[in-house]
Amino acid sequence: MLLWLAYSGCHSVLVVSLMCVALFCNGAVTISTLTNHTDIAPNFAGTTFGIDQTLTSILSFIVPVVVGVLIDGQQTLGNWRNAFWTCVAMYTLTTIFYLFFASISVQPWNSLRGTWDVTITHQDSVEKFNDNEEETNTLQTSVG
Question: Where are the alpha helices (DSSP H) in the chain?
């Protein structure tokens, strides 16, 4: 999509249409990488997702600077084409990296055996809830 966008020229309807389709496809692809945090480390999905989004946010500050350097104050189609080609290269490299190194297996560091076990079963949750409920009832009875 980005390549078509790079060569679409000044046809505004075509450019907007291609951008909409490209963002739709990006959303469809991104959902697979977002759920991968839960696959590899259910106990630390929030932490891994936070690290991922922190790095993504940092890149969100860097990309406009890179595009500014590529455009260099001259907004020609050729300069914008170079910016889109840079995006295509980055998408391709990160996709290849993900395809070769991503996993859906739970990672060994998900459970830190010996230090603490962060896996909580449903029965543990119910027992903890019941214990808290009994403490609350005892407090209400003694106060009331």
Answer: 2-6, 12-40, 45-71, 77-101, 122-143
Identify whether the C-beta of residue 110 lies closer than 8 Å to the C-beta of residue 41: yes
d(Cα 136, Cα 140) in Å, to the nearest integer? 6
Condensed to tens digits (0 to 9), the pLDDT of residues 67-125 reads 999 888 888 888 888 888 988 898 889 889 988 988 888 888 888 765 544 555 555 55
Residue 130 has pLDDT above 70, yes or no: no
The full DSSP string for 31-66 is HHHHHHHHHH-GGGHHHHHHHHHHHHHHHHHHHHHH
CB of 43 within 8 A of CB of 117?
no
SS3 at position 76 = coil
